[in-house]
Amino acid sequence: MGYVSGVFGIRGWLRVHADTEFDDSLFDYPVWWLGRNGEWREYRLEEGAAQNKGITAKLEGVDDRDVAFGLRGCQVAVPRAQLPAPADGEYYWNDLVGLAVFNRAGESLGQVESLFETGASAVIVVRDTDTKHLIPFVGVYVLDVDLPGKRLTVDWERDY
Questions:
Q1: For residues 146 and 154, is the Cβ–Cβ distance under 8 A?
Q2: What does pTM read for this prediction?
């Protein structure tokens, strides 16, 4: 859902970069999980505020700048059961990671390694053993998403 990008003030507030459509939609979730390197811890959201450059949040038990600073770089997640079902043609990024990617000719391009936002569109990072493809996640290039089949079909050539 995002990550802790820094601290805000001296009372334990965090600066958070949200990877959600609307930054402040993270405030809809009363429980956040913060983690890195596979270790996660649950926190209750006490308060939040939208700022010009993202959001700030005060979590229960994080009461000073030093504790907040120790959380810098942590990923922010919420329990999957709390998320609404995506609309038709929309996907949660974590559902796309790991999908096998094939072009129209049936050639394997690799697997979805990650996604990132550019402002104009999301971009999928597809990697095989020796090649990385950056493919805009838009209908002109992404032809079919088959989550049950764990497959993504794109209009993209191996040598792009």
A1: no
A2: 0.70
